[in-house]
Automatic annotation (TrEMBL):
Compositionally biased residues, Polar residues: 75-84
Transmembrane residue ranges: 34-56
Taxonomic lineage of the native organism: Bacteria, Bacillati, Bacillota, Clostridia, Lachnospirales
Annotated stretches, region: Disordered: 1-23, 71-97
Gene3D superfamilies: Cysteine proteinases
Domain of life: Bacteria
InterPro entries: Peptidase_C39-like (IPR039564)
Name this protein carries in UniProt: Peptidase C39-like domain-containing protein
All copies of domain Peptidase C39-like, residue ranges: 146-280
Pfam families hit by this protein: Peptidase_C39_2
Keyword Transmembrane helix: yes
Keywords, sorted A to Z: Membrane, Transmembrane, Transmembrane helix
Length: 332
């Protein structure tokens, strides 16, 4: 037989009956309280972490790499006061834009080395380049932002949807330097913008870069003066450079590829040599070049004003309505 257990009863000081709590019930209640408290603390921690991640500033890693690589800019703004040390080029493996004001970009300082025409070649394609180029050039028309077709921001961009800019984009890159820095009507132009414009306007040549008509059509279309030059003498070219012109030169087989290559002859120096802006080579753009030798290497082509054009500011003059681009890609 099972013996019935009597429930023990107790009285407090006021005479009220109290029931004795068994150890099992007490430990269960404590466990429930601990679980509840732990859940509250865990929820608070998760909420705090979420709020911190949302409100604290964060720099995306590729963009941070670019910003960390930008060279000092304290000497920017005037080629006469630029540092005598050659300007470094920012390097990155990303393709994000570099957010900088045009007036804060340093001017390139010439190496004073005389360029060799054999170095002016497209054989060493900069399609694999991982550099971001941020430098201003002192030209006969005024300060001009340098663009390189192998820049990490657009080297792999497909010109015409087929051909990478790093290999086939010398035309849009050369033209975009002029339009971006000197056009009164542009809202900041990059090589990508010009490549898209060229494709939309029939100036893209599949596997051949650009048709020669890109030069007069794009430059005049964006408000600059451009004329074909038929006098290829050194004297005539020097006179044009001395009167605030930049020359667009289509270089030929003697020094480049079969399809030719566009460069800009930007300034006549006191010693009679010239500076160039080579969209395929930053190094070539730091050197001095023999003007007569460059003219002797022009491509033997006469369509659409080739192989030499003179570019100048609009005759009536204008004030730029927009600042030049620093190379930021357009938002998608």
């Amino acid at each position: 037989m099972k013996r019935k257990m009597k429930k023990q009863k107790f009285k407090n000081r006021n005479g009220r009956k109290l029931h004795k709590t068994t150890p099992g019930r007490k430990s269960g209640r404590l466990l429930f309280e601990y679980i509840t408290l732990g859940g509250i603390l865990l929820s608070a921690a998760v909420l705090l972490i979420s709020l911190s991640a949302y409100f604290l500033p964060r720099i995306p890693e590729p963009e941070k790499e670019i910003m960390d690589a930008v060279p000092p800019l304290s000497q920017a703004g005037n080629p006469e006061t630029a540092s005598q040390e050659e300007t470094d080029v920012a390097h990155t493996t990303g393709a994000d834009p570099v957010p900088m004001e045009p007036e804060s970009i340093p001017f390139l300082v010439s190496s004073n080395e005389l360029g060799d025409i054999s170095d002016l070649t497209m054989e060493d394609s900069c399609n694999e380049d991982t550099s971001v180029y941020l430098v201003m050039l002192d030209t006969s028309m005024g300060p001009m932002l340098y663009y390189n077709q192998g820049d990490a921001r657009w080297a792999s961009y497909l010109y015409g949807g087929e051909d990478p800019m790093g290999t086939y984009g010398c035309g849009p890159t050369a033209v975009s330097m002029l339009i971006n820095s000197f056009s009164c009507d542009s809202l900041g132009v990059t090589p990508v913008n010009l490549a898209d414009w060229a494709f939309a306007n029939g100036e893209y040549a599949p596997k051949g870069g650009s048709y020669h008509s890109l030069i007069p059509n794009a430059l005049s279309g964006f408000g600059l003066q451009v004329e074909s030059i038929r006098d290829y003498s050194r004297e005539n070219a020097a006179d044009l450079l001395a009167t605030k012109h930049i020359l667009v030169a289509l270089m030929g087989k003697g020094s480049l590829t079969e399809n030719g290559h566009f460069i800009l002859i930007t300034k006549l120096l006191d010693n009679g040599n010239v500076h160039i802006a080579d969209p395929n080579s930053y190094e070539n753009s730091t050197k001095e070049w023999n003007l007569e030798q460059l003219l002797s290497e022009l491509k033997d082509s006469r369509d659409h004003g080739a192989p030499l054009w003179a570019v100048s500011l609009p005759a009536q003059g204008c004030e730029r309505r927009y600042p030049p681009s620093t190379g930021s890609l357009p938002e998608a």
